[in-house]
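Hey, can you fold this one?
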Amino acid sequence: MTPEQKARKIIDEKLLTSGWIIQDVKRLNPNAAVGVAVREFPTDTGPVDYALFVNGAPVGVIEAKKSEEGENITTVEGQSSRYANSTFKWIKCDYKIRFAYESTDKLTRFTDYNDEKYRSRTVFSFHRPETLASLIRRNDTIRNNMKHFPEFDGTGFRDCQIVAIKNLDNSLTENKPRALVQMATGAGKTFTAITAAYRMLKFGKMNRILFLVDTKSLGEQAEREFLAYRPNDDNRSFSEIYGVRRLKSSYIPSDVQICISTIQRMYSILSGEETDESIDEISLEEVTSLERKSPKEVVYNEKYPPEFFDCIIVDECHRSIYNVWNQVLEYFDAFIVGLTATPDKRTFAYFNQNIVSEYSREQAIIDGVNVGEDIFLIETNVGKNGAHIMKQLIESRNRMSREKRWKQLDEDVDYKASQLDRDIVNTSQIRTVIKTFKENLYTKLFTRRKEVPKTLIFAKTDSHADDIIQIVREEFGEGNEFCRKVTYSASNPETVLAEFRNSYYPRIAVTVDMIATGTDVKPIECLIFMRDVRSKNYFEQMKGRGTRTLGKDDLQKVSPSATDNKDHFVIVDAVGVTKSKKTETRTLERKPTVSMKELMLNVALGAKDEDTLTSLANRLVRLNSQMTMEERKEFEENIGTPAGKLAEALLNAFDEEVIKQTAVNTFQAAEPDEEQLNEAQKALIADAVKPFYDPDTRDFIENIRRSHEQIIDNVNLDTVLFADFDSEQEKNVDRTIQTFHEFIEVNKDEIIALRIIYNESYKNRPMAIESLKKLYEKLKNKGITVERLWDCYAIKKPDKVKRGTMAQLTDLISIIRFEMGYTDNLQPFADKVNYNFMQWTLRRNAGAVHFTEEQMEWLRLIKDHIIASLSIEPDDLDLNPFDHKGGLGRFYEVFGDSYEELLMEMNEVLVA
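Sure. Predicted structure:
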């Protein structure tokens, strides 16, 4: 077969698969089907390789070339254009050649001549004739529609979101196939993407948009946001205007406009594989390789052809666009919009450096969109240096069942810190970290709190997480609800996650990977790292769990003792994660070796090639030889079949004799043909890989493989080497103070006016407090609260700043005066009022008449009111809390006719 014949054969196959029938010009019947491709159809400039007829009329042409000409495929566009503008012989009806394809056996490019400034693009295969018929009926094109986006109404949007949406509009207007939205965690990427999707559907008149996510939990989160979204130009919710569906099976409805899916599920759908929901719970962060050698790569799917989606929005695109996953994106003839907070160089390259939004975390903190972090280091002796265990009788533990037994060490054991919680368990090391955290919680980390702030602990493994949970509960003297595990293997992780987000309990959650990235839990104010992370991007994603802003009212719903907006979070670094060297990328890179865990994940995600299954079989054979008789029995009880049988099934799927015998038995054929042999092998593979779809099976096998037992080190008690804020924290402190200084400069006129009002007379103080409230709201919009400022000055100038009871609003005056240099020391406004109150009452009680106990109760309430509001008026006495004591009427009865003079005196003396 010549290269030309080979190319024509492949092109014919693609046309047939796409729903076309193929005719030779001698057998012409353009009405034989909706779509007819006629070979060598004559025109006045020569025969075109294929003429495409839809509903009997010519609408397109195909120029076929051998694969060697693929590199020059764009030069063939001239030929396509010439044929498109030629006269087709024998055609009597009105017609227009609107579509052109240039194709080899490897590559197909497509042009729609109705597009303004039409441009050819690579497509996976030919469009179905019904699709071309629909385009002809509409006459307009998506690309033309998007050249006329209306002006965006940014009411209620952040500046960074407005910039992203407008720039994305421009990118789509210019027909750029890929666009990257880089936006800091918590800045509203999903909200921005939903707005863009709404505009593409309404104004671009797209049919369907695919929203790809990494895991089931992120899909559920995206679904909630889509359902709750209301556009500015319509009173209805998004779901009342357009259909929204999160995919949970291999069925994709054609009557909805937004489909939300994990990329794993979409890959399995296009590969024709049936999968359960467990596939959606495997984070791509856990998968470092999915072999490209698989013969079951994405192929044409008649149910969901390449034109099924017009745009793909890829959430967390820094990890879901490479290797095998890229096949999903390249299958569809769609625009691709990537969302990420942490792009790397590969991400920029993939999106053709078309970055429509660059909004860094640093800028988000400055703008008050994110909150910054303080870093508190806990360094322990064992955690840093490891330890030595002499040859002796020691305790050990089965990693999975956690059953303990005693065994004799054959030799001394020296272990490194990196072996902790994997090969070696030293509960003293975990306990020392937790105790140190607790001891510093209310003295250094969160000095004004009465309950533990919502805290997320990152553990190394599920086993490590269980150890941490038990020790946290013990050290804090709390019950099960206080500290819970949120991992994929935990029971009801979504329920626990929802409670962690919305309820008082749990106060502390422990995770491995499930909420390390993407998942939104705004009340988190503390992250404890008890595992190191060597990926810069992954670490930034993990930090993002604490960086989200939250208003005072919402924060108090789960943390009642919070007194203001969430203004920062704390990283407690117990493993040196903030100091360790980081690489640009974490996963999804092809490696020469693939672990057993990865092989099993690859199989669960659809890999069925011989290399993967044979490698997995060999690992199982090796594991079977290492297991004890008791472990083999346990393996069979848990998995339902021995490890050797699992391996045998995987190997049999590629054994020609077994395949043939299976085909003979199945089809009752003495000599099965190639199709029957293929079907028999498919069935063998399907049976062999089925056990690995179950995450519990994979976890069990991985736990057996990693280590039969962990050594428990009860000998080396750990001690604290260092526990304090990181010296580099001053960068964050300086940034906050500098932002405040710039804020004062910008608002100097208001501050001067406020000082004049405040100093003129106490009667003007209600006006001053209103001005102060407005000023403080502006400051909080930048993510800065009075408490945060006070803490920063205490770190920067500890000898000049006094800790004490914060009154929030009135303390802002003290801070402004301190920053502007009007006073050398910073002390809480309450301290000043309390001292003046004490001196005043001592003077008043020194005479013949003393205040009664009831009068003192009233005076203390008035003093507290002045602390919060600068002054008090008679009318205030009818408000809370005075109304509970009888209000102004009772105050008059208690103090008599001189009550107004008393209030004036307190206004002047207490704030003097």
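Confidence is low (pLDDT under 50) at residues 288-296, 585-593. Let me know if you want another pass with a different chain boundary.
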